[in-house]
Design a protein that fits this description.
294 residues; alpha/beta; 5-stranded mixed beta sheet; 14 strands
């Protein structure tokens, strides 16, 4: 016989309190709902469980036997649910993140060090990848990317200030080949590009003019998926390169590189932490969101 487990819990609470009003307040329902639930339970069992008057509630013999059998089980179930809820309320467990390579400087270092110090029961598992895939399907809790490449069905939380791309070259290269005055002139220069993997088109060089976005097909003479190779070659006078300003900033600050075409390179929304849903977020993910969001 299938019995409504909620009805059994209502029966146990009424049997303990002997008062419909108190039972209704504890369960957050009306006294009428309590009465109807008990009536359905008695109809299902085909036996009276309680004797009810305007002044009192007493268990019948069948009600006493049912209470003796059911009350310990209900208490055990509630205790188990309370225990697991208490455990989950504490941020713990493994948190898997997929972070794009250009976001590593923003989300890495001190941010991560402070997080693992604050939450010793959370184990971070971070993959730096520029592959585009379904993070849920691949078992990741969240990812960090530029907002423009995040799927629309994801929840996205900003984790950086606005970002900017820059074109850079060494002073030696510019002294020999001159400074381009417009992005279209880049096709006449030796360019060094980046791509995330084999058989993937090089990263686009995107600009804006009077509110209109456009890109330049620079056809790089050297293309690599290694940011270090790209930067060292540019610093050595190999040509002009293009990427996130944060990537080149240390070299610009030291004078090893200079920026070009700045007026055609406005800032844009930066990096976002993204995940599948706000509903029933795991405490470990909620803790990370609160730690990194802007």
């Amino acid at each position: 016989m299938n019995i409504d487990k909620n009805a059994l819990e209502v029966f146990v609470i009424v049997a303990q309190t002997r008062n419909f009003r108190i039972a209704a307040e504890r369960l957050g329902v009306t006294r009428s709902a309590i009465s109807q639930t008990l009536r359905r339970l008695e109809d299902r069992l085909n036996i009276s469980l309680m004797q009810r008057t305007t002044r009192s509630i007493n268990l019948t013999e069948a009600g006493k036997r049912l209470y003796a059998d059911v009350a310990p089980a209900i208490e055990q179930l509630n205790s188990a649910a309370t225990e697991i809820a208490d455990q989950l309320a504490q941020p713990r467990g493994q948190l898997r993140l997929a972070i794009s390579s250009i976001a590593e400087r923003v989300i890495g270092g001190k941010i991560l060090a402070d997080f693992i110090s604050a939450y010793p029961c959370i184990e971070l598992d971070i993959t730096i990848t520029d592959e585009e895939f379904d993070i849920v399907e691949q078992g990741y809790d969240a990812g960090v990317r530029l907002g423009e490449v995040i799927a629309q069905d994801m929840i996205a939380v900003p984790v950086s200030t606005p970002q900017r791309q820059v074109a850079v070259a060494s002073p030696a290269y510019l002294a020999q080949h001159g400074m381009p005055q417009h992005p279209n002139e880049l096709i006449h220069h030796r360019c060094i590009g980046w791509r995330k993997g084999p058989n993937v088109s090089p990263y686009r060089w995107e600009f804006a003019e009077r509110g209109r976005d456009f890109d330049v097909d620079v056809n790089p003479q050297l293309t690599t998926n290694d940011m270090g190779v790209m930067i060292r070659t540019v610093c050595a006078g190999g040509g002009i390169s293009f990427g996130m300003e944060e990537t080149f900033q240390p070299y610009i600050a030291r004078g090893e590189l200079v920026t070009l075409l700045d007026e055609w390179l406005p800032s844009f929304p930066g990096f976002y932490l993204y995940f599948s849903s706000r509903k029933n977020l795991a405490p470990k993910l909620r803790a990370f969101i609160d730690h990194v969001k802007m």
